[in-house]
Amino acid sequence: MDKPTFRDVAYGDHERDVVDLYQADSKDPAPVYMYIHGGGFRGGDKASISQVLLEGCHEAGISVAAINYPLSGTDRYPAAMEHSQRAIQFIRWKAEEWNLDTSRVAAGGGSAGAGISMWIGFRREEAKPESEDPVARQSTLLTCVASWQGQCSYDPHFIRTIISGPAYAHEALQLFFGFSPEEFDKPEARAMFKAASAINYVSKDAPPVMLWYTTPNLPMDPEPDAGQGIHHPIFGLVLKEKMDALGVECVVRMREDVPEEEQEAIQARFYRETVEFLKRQFGLG
After folding, report:
1. Among 32, 96, 89, which residue's Cα sits nearest to residue 66?
2. Residue ranges per domain, the chain?
3. What is the pLDDT along the chain (285 residues), one digit of tens a residue?
4. In this structure, are residues 134 and 59 in contact, taking their beta carbons and an 8 Å threshold?
5. pTM of the entire structure?
6. The domain at 6-282 falls in which architecture?
7. In angstroms, rounded to a whole number, what is the distance separating the alpha carbons of residues 172 and 237?
């Protein structure tokens, strides 16, 4: 794995508020892609970034930032989302020092990282121009989102309408929200589920999205298990239907699109396609 140009730079006060920057070799300010790791909100690390993705971005002249964020064992929703959003602002604040183009900033990652990046991307501008904190004054908007194995919603009630089986009550969701399935109908739980789900913020002003899945597009009979269900491509297809209706680009790729390839080869292919998507959105050759 390539070594970061800057390692473990603090972007906030939490011990996991750290970012690595892999700087592209570029004379002009480079666009930047922020990688948000997966792990069910309860694990994972920024070092998990794909070498294929990293090399592809650098060959295209794209710098890459990789972040950690608070985990649900100690910090439940909305910590992961809000701290990751601050990381976007911090990257913009460091743009001159790190030779980055603040007008071309994207985010993405796998699973939880996908959900976080969509949550950031679909929400309105949340910069605080009057803040005494110079980081908080930076924009939170994204040029695009490029992710994989992602969930457009973390609402157990919504998940039950699209996916059979136990995915709606996945233990990672219970820890993330701090509610057991017996408590899912509480008003405060329902409000939290709604607020945490990126699809609820989609509008005609949403940034373009690419999502890919190596989990098969399984039938609902027999019911997929919790792990299969929570990474089911139907999350991407439901999001695409909503974004298509609004006239916003949403690209969904599935392992069934390339049935002749093995899992590892499919992942490498889709990482390369992710780079091509970023290049197009950033206006690179």
Report:
1. 32
2. 6-282
3. 689 999 999 999 999 999 999 999 999 999 999 999 999 999 999 999 999 999 999 999 999 999 999 999 999 999 999 999 999 999 999 999 999 999 999 999 999 999 999 999 999 999 999 999 999 999 999 999 999 999 999 999 999 999 999 999 999 999 999 999 999 999 999 999 999 999 999 999 999 999 999 999 999 988 999 999 999 999 999 999 999 999 999 999 999 999 888 888 999 999 999 999 999 999 997
4. no
5. 0.97
6. 3-Layer(aba) Sandwich (3.40)
7. 22
